[in-house]
Structure formats: structure tokens, C-alpha cells
Design brief:
With about 350 residues, the protein is an alpha/beta fold. The chain has ten helices and 15 strands. A nine-stranded mixed beta sheet has the order 14-13-12-11-7-10-9-8-15, with helices on one face. The chain has a six-stranded parallel beta sheet with strand order 3-2-1-4-5-6, sandwiched between helices. Helix 1 packs across helix 9, helix 5 runs antiparallel to helix 10 and helix 8 packs across helix 10.
């Protein structure tokens, strides 16, 4: 089944009208009226559904079963608390709907496999909302790394840093909260999209629960992914008051740093370098070896690229797939690899509480 094959807008039902459902999904879809129309919503809070009815002229369904059974819904967006994603996605797929799932796609690899199996059985599209793949910052990093300008990548670091206290539902483990699900789903997806062609990595992980998060879920996570010739350091924390660069990529020809609104990379052309041979001959004046390198320096500003812009690009690329004329933009095999890494993180670490120093 394709959606909107006549050229009419693709009809969307949204389950969950919280931060993501309202601002990132409903808001984005409303901004793409030629492609999408919000026709139905479900949320346990009646006032939120009433707000959506007033905003979009859509139907509201207090019972999720009625939304997924509605004949005028082509696609269901699952934007409910993380622990419910698998159940709601499978139910929508079993009713013949295409499904978009807010991150984290699932809270375990087993859940992801159940969702993927349901999509394949139903012959429907199942998309993980990995919108951060569409940020200009990440796309620039990907373009530079794939260009080969930096040479062989030796190591990369990505930092998801903040200093903040949280006490919302995303700090509660039973609801699927925690930094591994909330930020790790994006960060690990990025690393695998950049470097996953090297095969499956070894995974090291340590997680901490600090008093900065009220609900007991982890809020400081260190992940190291190691391939034979590459190590990637992923740091996710709410306990960094001096945020480090989002990306630092070290290569045999140069380095990239992405910090704030600017991506910069500095590299040399190896063909322009004088060949060197190791020697035991003492250097003049007992100095270290020195030479002037012919650096090439480039940068790109990504200022003004809002978080919502990445959602707009994702949904714009998804529309042709829903209409039956293009491949799904984010393959399910990619998402399964991500969930496998996150599962390994859970299996190889013990969440250690830190004494309550912050009130």
C-alpha cells in the first residue's frame, strides 16, 4: 500500500502529543502541507487532543485502537513514552499502517526485531525518526570524512555535553528514560553511519546515575567503539559545565573539529610532502624534526540550522517512499545495528549511583 498516490497529502495520525509529538512531528508535518496532513491524534490528556483538533481540524481518539483502525490514516507517528514504542508500532503495522517511531526506536534489540518482523509481514514502511542524520552539522562531518581529505581515520570523539538537572519522565527507567536511550540513540547512529562499514565494533560502556536526574535513570554515559584500526569515543552527559566540541576526528592527513555553529577541517595533501626516512643521524642543534606543512584549511558555517529543520528534511525525503516511488531513507538494518550496540552497553555495564551533592 502506498500513501497519497493520487498526489493528495499523506494522512497522518499521531500517538502522543508531548514535546516530540507536538513540536517535532505535528509542527513539522503542518509545515509541509503539500505532502502531509494531520488527520488524527491520540493522547491520554484530553486538553492536548482538543488543542490538536483546534489547530489541525483533525479527529481525536481517546482509545489508540480506534486511531490505528481509522480508514483515513495512512501513517501513524508513535511519539509516546519510549517503553511503549514497540507495542504501539506493532499494533499500527498489524492494522496496515506505515509507522514512524520517535527515538529511541525501541528499548531493546528484541523489541526492535519484533517491530521489524511486523513491518515485513505487513509489507509496510517502518521508519526510525533519526532526524539528527539530517542536521547540517552531521552532514558536513559525513561529507568531509567520506571525501578522504583527512586520510585514514585513526580516532574520533563525539561529545553530547550539557550541565542540567532533569526531573521529567525521561529520567525514569521504567518509562524507557535515561541518557543511553535519549542521546545514545542519536550518537551511536551517527558513529555507525560514519564508520560502520568497517564491520561490527567491540563495545565498552560505563554508565552513571548522578543526582542531576531525579528519576534514577543514567545521565552520564561513556561508550568506546573499537574496530581493528579505529577507536571512537562517545561521551553523553548532563554533568559537563564546559562542553567540549561535538566532533573531533583525527586522520593521517588532518583533523576535523565541529564546535557550535562551525565545522572546521585542516589537512595536508600527502603528495605535496617531502618523503622522509627514519635515521639515527643527530638533528642539528639537538632539535626535534621540524618542517613547514602546506596546510589547507576549510570551514562551513551551519548557523541558523534549527533542530526542527532536520525533521523537515527527514519527512521531505520520506514522502516519496510512502508514495511508492523511492527507497526508505533510513534502512531498518542500520537501526538494528544501533540497537545491538545499545543492548551491549546495557549488558556490559552496571549503573553506578553517585552521591547526592547537588540539590
Amino acid at each position: 500500500m502506498s500513501a497519497g498516490t493520487s498526489g493528495a497529502p499523506i494522512r497522518v495520525g499521531i500517538a502522543g502529543l508531548g514535546r516530540a509529538g507536538w513540536h517535532l512531528h505535528a509542527g513539522t508535518l503542518a509545515a509541509l502541507p503539500a505532502e502531509y496532513r494531520v488527520v488524527a491524534v491520540h493522547d491520554p490528556m484530553p486538553d492536548r487532543m482538543a488543542e490538536a483538533v483546534a489547530e489541525f481540524g483533525c479527529a481525536s481518539y481517546p482509545d489508540y485502537a480506534d486511531l490505528v483502525a481509522a480508514d483515513d490514516v495512512d501513517v501513524v507517528v508513535v511519539a509516546s513514552p519510549s517503553a511503549t514504542h514497540a507495542e504501539l508500532a506493532v499494533r499500527a503495522l498489524e492494522h496496515g499502517k506505515h509507522v514512524v517511531v520517535e527515538k529511541p526506536f525501541a528499548t531493546s534489540l528484541a523489541e526492535a526485531d519484533e517491530m521489524i518482523a511486523a513491518a515485513r509481514t505487513a509489507g509496510r514502511i517502518l521508519l526510525a525518526s533519526q532526524n539528527q542524520r539530517y542536521s547540517l552539522l552531521f552532514q558536513t562531518v559525513r561529507d568531509v570524512v567520506s571525501s578522504g581529505r583527512l586520510g585514514q581515520i585513526v580516532e574520533a570523539k563525539t561529545h553530547w555535553h550539557a550541565f542540567r538537572r532533569r526531573w521529567d519522565w525521561q529520567t525514569i527507567p521504567e518509562l524507557g528514560g535515561g541518557t543511553l536511550n535519549n542521546d545514545g540513540s542519536h550518537a551511536v547512529d551517527h558513529v555507525l553511519a560514519l564508520f560502520g562499514g568497517a564491520g561490527e565494533p567491540e563495545v565498552f560502556c560505563r554508565m552513571r546515575t548522578t543526582p542531576l536526574s531525579a528519576g534514577g535513570a543514567e545521565d552520564h554515559v561513556k561508550i568506546v567503539l573499537a574496530w581493528d584500526e579505529l577507536v571512537v569515543d562517545v561521551e553523553l552527559t548532563n554533568a559537563c559545565a564546559y562542553p567540549q566540541p561535538k566532533w573531533l576526528v583525527l586522520g593521517t592527513n588532518g583533523t576535523l573539529v565541529a564546535d557550535g555553529d562551525v565545522v572546521r577541517w585542516r589537512y595536508v595533501d600527502p603528495d605535496a610532502l617531502t618523503p622522509r626516512v627514519a635515521t639515527t643521524t643527530p638533528t642539528e642543534g639537538r632539535r626535534y624534526n621540524t618542517e613547514e606543512l602546506p596546510w589547507v584549511e576549510e570551514e562551513r558555517s551551519v548557523a541558523g540550522d534549527a533542530y526542527a529543520d532536520s525533521h523537515r528534511r527527514m519527512y521531505t525525503e520520506l514522502a516519496p517512499a510512502l508514495r511508492g516511488g523511492a527507497p526508505v531513507p533510513i534502512p531498518l538494518d542500520d537501526i538494528r545495528r544501533q540497537l545491538a550496540v545499545l543492548d551491549q552497553c546495557r549488558a556490559t555495564t552496571t549503573k553506578t549511583p553517585i552521591a547526592e551533592d547537588v540539590r
